[in-house]
Amino acid sequence: MRILIYTGKGGVGKTSISAATACALAHAGKRVLIMSTDQAHSLGDSFGIKLSHQAMEIFPNLDAMEIDPIEESKEAWGNLRNYLKQILSEKANGGIEAEEILLFPGLDEVFSLLRILEVYEQGKYDIIVVDCAPTGEALSLFTYSEKLSVLADKILPMVRNMNSVLGSFISKKTTVPKPKDVVFEEFISLVKRLNRLQELLHRRDLTSMRIVMTPERIVLDEARRNYTWNQLYDFGVDAVYMNKIYPKQALDGYFSQWESLQEKNIQIAQESFPNQMFFKLELQNEELRGKEKLDQVSKLLYEHIDPSAVFCKEPAFRIEESHGTRIFIIHLPFADKKEIFVQQEGSDLILSLRNEIRRFHLPDNLSRRTMSKYLYENEELRIYMDY
Q1: Please, what is the average pLDDT of the chain?
Q2: What is the dihedral sign for C-alpha 201, 204, 206, 208?
Q3: Nearest of 373, 274, 264, 291 to residue 333 by alpha carbon
Q4: Which of 2, 135, 145, 299 has the least CB density, counted as fewest CB within 10 Å?
Q5: What pTM was computed for the model?
Q6: Do the Cβ atoms of 238 and 209 come closer than 8 Å?
Q7: pLDDT of the residue at 77
Q8: Quick one: 280 and 344 in the same domain?
Q9: pLDDT category, 93, cuts 50, 70, 90?
């Protein structure tokens, strides 16, 4: 099985590219499911069909669905949600609805990703194509399981041990009984499922992130940041798509200045992603809507190319040794060394890059060592570990 995840800045054409890819794979005889995890669903619009939360056949070998995050949320943490709702309803007194308070930002979308795990474990399809949310939202979703794991490992055991005291206190102050073990077990089960999903996403032979962009410098800069963050979290990017390139015949007159601009930006993009498959697609003379048009685009993109192939397995991390010092090396292109900060906390390294924080649990061959320094050079962060 393969999982292909399409991401990029809003408006670059992720949905059209992912839909065309799914069509190409289905015509090649693969059993394909394409799913949208973006709350602003437009996948159904691309096919000209109204989609739902359940898989629907588009044509033989191709099914599609638009994930409903609220439904996924109910399934993922129903007991815990109901318990919190009981407490909040007790104190709401006709004010803010408990349901509104329980709309934690981003959490419902995280549960949508669990549908990928469910479909993978069912084994019904050969390929899962994911039309993902815009860059920032997608990265937040893919890294949520790490943050929940810290909560489950370090905070939940303490809360569970104090349950008899806290639960009795809650029961005295409200009509709500103290939380049952099923509430804790459900949360632990949720974290385990997210961790299994994370393992799938990190397998470069199975999952590929694919970045879609347009030949504009602002979009290109975000695509490069997108790639840096994917490297930071060890997600494999094997292909990039330069979409909506103005064709020669459109560059006369009013759009003439775009010729040199887009040519330069395409060159920068190709130089920025030398190890990834680089696809180009010109701006079409009509909107990409309906199976016939998507089939045309799929032929333009993938003539003599299998879109399910793994185009790049470039590792994000490696360990080298020099004169007894072990060096933990992270490939981080396009980063600014002024925005990088690394500290050690026990057997963990905590790396800050802009507004992202990543915690690395050190492998056994590094966990007993202490960080002596770190350097950023030649697009690599080198962290020196000594005794």
Answers
A1: 85
A2: positive
A3: 274
A4: 299
A5: 0.84
A6: yes
A7: 63
A8: no
A9: low
CA–CA separation, 109 vs 119, rounded Å?
A: 16
Residue 297 near residue 291 (C-beta atoms within 8 A): no
Q: Report which of residues 13 and 69 the model is more confident about.
A: 13
The token pair that represents 172 in the structure block = 């005295």
Q: Are the beta carbons of 174 and 83 closer than 8 angstroms?
A: no
Q: What is the 3-state secondary structure (H, E, C) of 171-220?
A: HHHCCCCCCCHHHHHHHHHHHHHHHHHHHHHHCCCCEEEEEEECCCHHHH
* Residue 237 and residue 175 share a domain: yes
Tell whether the model's pLDDT for residue 138 goes beyond 80. no
Say yes or no: 221 and 301 in one domain: yes
d(CA 26, CA 31) in angstroms, rounded, equals: 6
Say if residue 305 is in the same domain as residue 348.
no
In angstroms, rounded to a whole number, what is the distance separating the alpha carbons of residues 283 and 214?
A: 10
Model confidence pLDDT, tens digit, residues 10-42: 899 999 999 999 999 999 999 999 999 877 778
Q: Are 141 and 109 in contact (CB under 8 A)?
A: yes
Distance of CA 325 to the CA centre of its chain: 34
Residue 332 is classified by DSSP as -
Q: How far apart are the first and last CA of the chain?
A: 43
Neighbours of 205 (CB within 10 A): 9
Q: 310 and 323 share a domain?
A: no
| C-alpha span between 183 and 80 (Å, rounded) | 5
161 pLDDT band, cuts 50/70/90, is: low
* Domain count within the chain: 2
Distance of CA 296 to the CA centre of its chain: 28
Distances (CA, A) of 203 to 193, 206, 247: 16, 5, 37
Which structure tokens are listed for 55?
A: 């898989």
